[in-house]
């Protein structure tokens, strides 16, 4: 049987459009594992660093997350590969709103990546959507969204969060 990440990244390459972008959140352990596999299928262009400013850890604190960035087509991204959101300094436990998933990302972080690489009406895919942060960000930015999640409880949470965004957008309009 083909190894999981080999199949996954090859499928990413199959489904993304010309000029489509791929972002893989990882850390110092998984980066070295993902990088050569992703490189087999898509042009890996950079490693982004989300600087969390402060964080937990006793063998030097963990204060950043790494994001492998790959794309099809001509490179066209502007800006630095390091970014920070001062309101979200701290470890993985720091997020916006209620903490409903152990590795939940702040919506603002995902909104930044979606804004950088898509326009309104584009399609965003998150195959491991957890509490639905990418779906929430996509909806707020008028992007279409496809997501997968293996655990029923997180699907329910994601649905609830999306309904909340719908409500907020209705009242804003
Ligand atoms: C790192 S978490 C994503 C957290 C998300 N970014 C958020 O903000 O809530 C990864 C999720 O992928 C799900 N998952 C793991 N294997 C999966 C699979 N084969 N298919 C779909 N979902 C899967 C896990 O249940 C977990 O909720």
Characteristics:
173 residues, Rossmann fold, 2 domains, alpha/beta, binds S-adenosylmethionine, 36% helix
Describe the structure.
The protein is an alpha/beta fold and 173 residues long. The protein has 2 domains: 1-94, 3-Layer(aba) Sandwich (Rossmann fold), CATH 3.40.50; 95-173, Vaccinia Virus protein VP39 (Rossmann fold, 3-Layer(aba) Sandwich). 36% of the residues lie in helices and 19% in strands. The protein is built from 5 helices and 6 strands, in the order αβαβββαβαβα. The chain has helices at 4-15, 31-41, 107-117, 133-140, 152-172; strands at residues 21-26, 43-51, 64-71, 82-83, 123-126, 144-147. The strands form 2 sheets. A 4-stranded mixed sheet has the order 1-3-2-4. Strands 5-6 form a two-stranded parallel sheet. β5, α4 and β6 (144-147) form a beta-alpha-beta unit. The protein is globular, with a radius of gyration of 16 Å. 22% of the residues are buried. The mean pLDDT is 93. S-adenosylmethionine (SAM) binds at residues 101, 103-105, 128, 130-131, 133, 148-151, 154.
Shape: globular
Residue share in β-strands = 15-25%
Structural class: alpha/beta
- SSE arrangement, N to C: HEHEEEHEHEH
What fold name goes in the CATH topology slot of the largest domain?
Answer: Rossmann fold
| Structure ligands | S-adenosylmethionine
Radius of gyration: 16 Å
Assigned CATH superfamily of the largest domain: Vaccinia Virus protein VP39
* CATH class category label of the largest domain: Alpha Beta
Number of helical stretches of at least 4 residues: 5
Model regions low in confidence, pLDDT < 50 over at least 5 residues: none
> How many E strands?
6
The first-to-last residue Cα distance is 50 Å
């Amino acid at each position: 049987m083909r190894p999981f990440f080999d199949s996954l990244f090859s499928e990413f390459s199959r489904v993304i459009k010309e000029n489509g972008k791929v972002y893989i959140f990882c850390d110092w352990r998984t980066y070295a594992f993902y990088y050569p596999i992703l490189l087999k299928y898509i042009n890996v262009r950079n490693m982004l660093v989300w600087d969390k400013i402060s964080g937990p850890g006793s063998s030097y604190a963990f204060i950043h997350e790494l994001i492998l960035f790959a794309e099809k087509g001509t490179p066209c991204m502007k800006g630095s590969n390091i970014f920070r959101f001062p309101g979200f300094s701290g470890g993985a436990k720091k997020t916006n709103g209620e903490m409903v998933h152990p590795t939940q990302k702040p919506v603002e972080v995902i909104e930044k990546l979606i804004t950088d690489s898509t326009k309104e009406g584009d399609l965003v895919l998150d195959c491991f959507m957890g509490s639905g942060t990418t779906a929430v960000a996509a909806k707020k930015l008028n992007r279409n969204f496809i997501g997968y999640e293996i655990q029923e409880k997180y699907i329910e949470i994601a649905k609830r969060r999306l309904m909340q965004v719908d409500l907020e957008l209705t009242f804003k309009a």
